[in-house]
Amino acid sequence: MEEFSYGGARALIALHGQHMRSCLEVWKQAKEAGIVLPKTDDPSYKSMEPLLFHLLRASRNYMVWICEKLELPDPGIDPAPDLKNVEQSADVYLEHLLQRWQLPLREVPEDRFFDRTYLSRWDVEYCIESMLEHAVMHAIRHEYQLGNLMKAQEAKD
Q1: Residue 112 is part of a domain; what is its CATH number?
Q2: Could you read off the pLDDT of 104-122 as tens digits, one per residue?
Q3: Where are the alpha helices (DSSP H) in 2-127?
Q4: pTM beyond 0.70
């Protein structure tokens, strides 16, 4: 990975990539195991494909939001594949997404990552560093969720 003005950004971007790849692998295992997501009104959890779409779209949107708030150029991340193609396109799309995540923040000085907060699209305030941390944890939380669902299913079998 290239050098960054702020090593914390470099670390969080690397962790994001690591955990997104890991989460995708666990998603594939859960899909193969026939995991059914718990009932909810949230459309992102209707089934495995909307969950995968949610993960990929959210990851894109985090970096787009960060670039908007820092007044950086659009990061050039393609929209997530549509629901009917998300499973077949996930590997290639994820690599594109992670490659584009590497670029925008390299020259941003350290103080810009936590000098102020911005309102997220879900009306919570984040500084840039906390949004990067949120992006990392988003993948970790969904991987954890899927892992627990697989363990519960194994315990029933």
Answers
A1: 1.20.120.450
A2: 999 999 999 999 999 999 9
A3: 7-32, 48-69, 86-101
A4: yes
Domain span at residue 56 reads 7-156
What is each CA distance from 72 to 63, 81, 96, 102, in whole angstroms? 10, 24, 19, 14
Tokens 């990539």 map to which residue? Answer: 17
What confidence score (pLDDT) does residue 156 get?
83
Residues 105 and 9: beta-carbon distance below 8 Å: yes
Tell me if 102 is assigned to some domain. Answer: yes
Element (H, E) at 119: strand 118-119
Q: In 3-state terms, what secondary structure has residue 125?
A: strand
CA distance 7 to 19: 18
> For residue 92, what are the β-bridge partners?
none
Mean pLDDT of 28-44: 95
- Total count of domains within the chain: 1
Rounded to whole angstroms, what are the CA distances from 94 to 18, 37, 50, 91, 101?
11, 22, 15, 5, 10
Q: Is 40 left (phi over 0), alpha (psi -120 to 50) or beta?
A: beta
